[in-house]
Amino acid sequence: MNKKIVLSSFKNASSKDWGDWRWQLQNRFTKISSIKHFPIKYFPNQINADKIASVYPMAVTPYYLSLIQEDASGDAITAQCIPDMREITLGQKYPEDPLEEDSKMPVPKLIHRYTDRCLALVTEVCAVHCRHCNRKRFWAKPNSGNFKTRLGGFIRYLEKSPQIREVIISGGDPLIYDDEKLEIILAGIKTVQNVEIIRIGSRMPAVMPMRITKTLCRILKRYRPLWFNTQFNSPAELTADAARACNMLQEAGIPVSNQSVLIKGVNDSEDKMRALLYGLQKISVRPYYLFHCEPVKGCWHFRTSIESGIKMMENLRRECSGLALPQYVADIPGKAGKIPLVSISSSTKAQMHKYQYFFDNFT
Ligand SMILES: *Cc1c(COP(=O)(O)O)cnc(C)c1O
């Protein structure tokens, strides 16, 4: 579709409204019936989707909806934001929380699995409900409790954990908060002496890039060293608006990197992945991780095999710039954490054998 088609379903909305993140948030599409009036070619398969939306609610910003292309059945945006029957019919034995995150919190909503860093889930709310989300279980709950109480718990834990030097602020999407609340969170965490680095995990540059405002950048700039990790999964998401949002962060001295999820039909071919990685490199966003899609209930149809993922990345490694290559990893519960998925091909093994002396210590 495009901005014009989507805007036409709002009576009095202007282009200025479109560029305002609050307008985008307030006018999200949350019912299949609210997108039925758009040309059928965009949504040919969504007749029964209201049933799914009652289990895993739908939320799509007008901006993200406008990125849907004509051939909707294989569309990367549709796959990521429009409910699909397979979410409630396939892979129902998968757990809702395969990483057992909920049982590993020393204080509510803080996950501490690795020594020097922890993950602070500051909200359960997002701008868009990604159908491949590994925390779909959050959607059923409204934001629980007062955010200051939650923040107080984080700060007390950080103060008595001197080994933690980095805090990842995630959720949900932390940028769902307005600037004022976000600054309270940043300032609170920064009061802890041992916290040297803040990392924000947010999908806003991909799903609601107008959230990245001048004011927000001014605030974030004050809390450097601050690293921003976002999630682009398809070149269709790398729009001029998205590039502008990333550029604003970069101009504020904030490095932007990207964590993708390997999603069947969206980015599981060499051509699609190459286009995504080159596109990211062109806007100076460093591909960081490519996550193997976790066995989460409701995500069965998005999963590829590890073998095909390794093969794809191995082929890309041979031709692409190292700066464009993310590390392909699988997260598993327990101490192992994120495991790099690599294999050494037989031709590489033969080369290594030929140059055995590179790997040996000579006496
Ligand atoms: C992924 C993750 C991190 C961050 O790990 P990096 O490898 O530094 O990106 C931190 N805490 C938890 C609980 C995580 O799942």
Descriptive report:
The chain is built from 15 helices and 9 strands. It is α/β, with parallel strands linked by helices and 363 residues long. The chain is globular and about 75 Å long. The longest helix is centred in the C-terminal third of the chain and has 14 residues, at 306-319. It starts with a helix and ends in a 9-residue tail after the last helix. It has a 9-stranded mixed sheet. It has helices spanning 3-7, 15-18, 21-26, 49-53, 62-65, 76-81, 86-89, 147-159, 179-190, 204-207, 214-221, 240-251, 270-282, 306-319, 346-354; strands at residues 110-114, 117-121, 166-170, 197-201, 226-230, 256-262, 286-292, 327-332, 337-340. The chain folds into 2 domains: 3-89, no CATH class; 101-358, Aldolase class I (TIM Barrel). Bound molecules: pyridoxal-5'-phosphate (PLP).
